[in-house]
């Protein structure tokens, strides 16, 4: 099966989308319990701690979890067994060293993080000291996951994701039930621990533990760090933007506002983006393999975009219509205020389905400066738009800002790859935009009808069925044409 075929793209996009979907189902149960026991204020505190940990992890891991994947994939594709063992050892050693550094830094910077995130209040400093081991565990997990991605052990990665999310549910319920908000820190530490253990178990079975020190350690890591340092900067900017937004909402609103925003963001960006989970696991290594062939790269990017749009667009239509029921059901009635924000923010995932396959082009071409500039520009614009529109229309304005910033990102990335790499949208992509974007707009217009009225649900159901049917028949036709080509050949 060609790595460039629709069947391959659909197979692995569906595989990790399904794994993500199952993870989301389990996660929804956990979030329901979290919302009931912690309320919006507790959700806001959980969001701030999680964002801060992501910020420290991203700032100190030298981009190894992502930057090493390309190098690993190249060695596993073309190298011998000694080369493979060497690069695996280098990645593991650098992950451990950067993790230890990040853990120490998180503990030392606890008072600063507390004052920055909690409006000059340093009472949360001790919590950051307790959370510091999470940074180490995240670094180790990220390095081992990169090894599995580079070695193309996709089934193992899928099992790890499922095991981790189930463990997170089992851990969260008793802590939140018995400890309430005080259980947030133990849950974050425990989930990071189980994620690391599951990843190490599978990775060590395939690649026995070994580390590199001395000259081999430095020389072997140079090629990884040269790429990874760009991800460090972009990661700092991106996670810093998210931390700043939540801090801004905390100062200009309250922890309830942070919790509501996080719930809306989770519903749309996290859950709506489950189709994109295959991008860095499957699409990025495949695109890297054809990075010197502009025509093949153009075809691969378009096919990834087509499949992403066909899978995600009907889901977004259904999400827009069902949010008035889904959010109170999955969280609680106290989260109903975030429904308008989540509905308008759904458009951000439509734009992301188009922009993400294009963003990887600059990565595989090692055009790191351009990638860095685009990511920084997007983060700055997103923060400014959230602050501006939240000031005008509250949480609904924040939803508008998310969609507008992703549209801006799509425009910037497309113009860059068009002029730099002569990328051109395929006719199929243009057709799908012409069909699914108006369909999504219609679904959003329906939300202005009172959801208690019967014709809200009738019209919403009809447009949802239309989206699913169009997507189903197009995908069926594409797979049938691929089979016919194979038979004819």
UniProtKB/TrEMBL annotation:
InterPro entries: Poly_Biosynth_Transport. It is a multi-pass membrane protein. The chain crosses the membrane at residues 12-29, 35-56, 94-114, 126-148, 160-178, 184-204, 224-245, 257-279, 307-331, 337-361, 368-390, 396-417, 429-449, 455-475. It is found in: Cell membrane. The keyword Membrane applies. It comes from Xylanibacter muris. Pfam families: Polysacc_synt_3. The keyword Membrane applies. Its main location: membrane. It comes from the Bacteria. Keywords: Cell membrane, Membrane, Transmembrane, Transmembrane helix. This is Oligosaccharide flippase family protein.
């Amino acid at each position: 099966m060609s790595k460039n075929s629709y069947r391959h793209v659909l197979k692995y996009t569906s595989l990790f989308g399904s794994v993500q979907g199952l993870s989301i189902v389990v996660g929804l149960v956990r979030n329901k319990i979290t919302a009931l026991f912690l309320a919006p204020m507790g959700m806001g505190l959980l969001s701030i701690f999680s964002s801060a940990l992501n910020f420290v992890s991203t700032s100190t891991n030298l981009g190894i979890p992502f930057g090493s994947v390309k190098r690993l994939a190249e060695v596993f594709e073309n190298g011998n067994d000694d080369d493979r063992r060497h690069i695996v050892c280098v990645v593991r050693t650098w992950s451990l060293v950067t993790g230890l550094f990040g853990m120490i830094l998180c503990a030392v910077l606890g008072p600063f993080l507390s004052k920055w995130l909690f409006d000059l209040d340093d009472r949360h400093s001790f919590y950051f000291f307790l959370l510091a081991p999470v940074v180490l565990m995240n670094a180790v997990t990220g390095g081992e996951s990169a090894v599995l991605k580079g070695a193309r052990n996709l089934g193992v990665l899928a099992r790890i994701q499922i095991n981790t999310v189930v463990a997170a549910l089992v851990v969260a319920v008793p802590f939140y039930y018995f400890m309430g908000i005080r259980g947030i820190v133990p849950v974050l530490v425990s989930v990071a621990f189980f994620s690391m253990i599951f990843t190490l178990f599978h990775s060590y079975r395939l690649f026995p533990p070994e580390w590199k020190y001395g000259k081999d350690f430095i020389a072997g890591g140079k090629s990884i760090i040269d790429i990874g340092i760009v991800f460090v900067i972009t990661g700092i900017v991106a996670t810093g933007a998210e931390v700043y937004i939540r801090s801004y909402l905390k100062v200009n609103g309250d922890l309830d506002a942070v919790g509501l925003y996080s719930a809306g963001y989770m519903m749309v960006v996290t859950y709506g983006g489950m189709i994109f989970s295959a991008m860095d696991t499957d699409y990025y290594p495949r695109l890297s393999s054809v990075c010197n062939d502009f025509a093949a790269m153009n075809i691969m990017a378009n096919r990834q975009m087509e499949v992403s749009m066909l899978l995600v667009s009907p889901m977004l239509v259904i999400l827009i219509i069902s949010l008035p029921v889904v959010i109170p059901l999955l969280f609680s009635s106290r989260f109903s205020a975030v429904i308008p924000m989540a509905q308008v923010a759904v458009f951000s995932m439509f734009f992301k389905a188009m922009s993400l396959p294009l963003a990887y082009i600059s990565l595989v071409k090692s055009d790191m400066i351009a990638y860095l500039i685009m990511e920084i520009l997007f983060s700055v614009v997103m923060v400014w738009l959230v602050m501006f529109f939240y000031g005008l229309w509250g949480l609904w304005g924040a939803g508008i800002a998310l969609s507008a910033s992703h549209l801006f990102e799509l425009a910037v990335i497309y113009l860059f790859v068009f002029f730099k790499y002569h990328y051109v949208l395929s006719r199929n992509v243009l057709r799908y935009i012409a069909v699914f974007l108006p369909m999504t707009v219609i679904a959003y217009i329906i939300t202005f009808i009172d959801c208690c009225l019967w014709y809200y649900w009738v019209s919403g159901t009809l447009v949802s069925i239309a989206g699913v049917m169009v997507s189903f028949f197009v995908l069926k036709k594409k797979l049938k044409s691929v089979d016919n080509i194979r038979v004819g050949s």
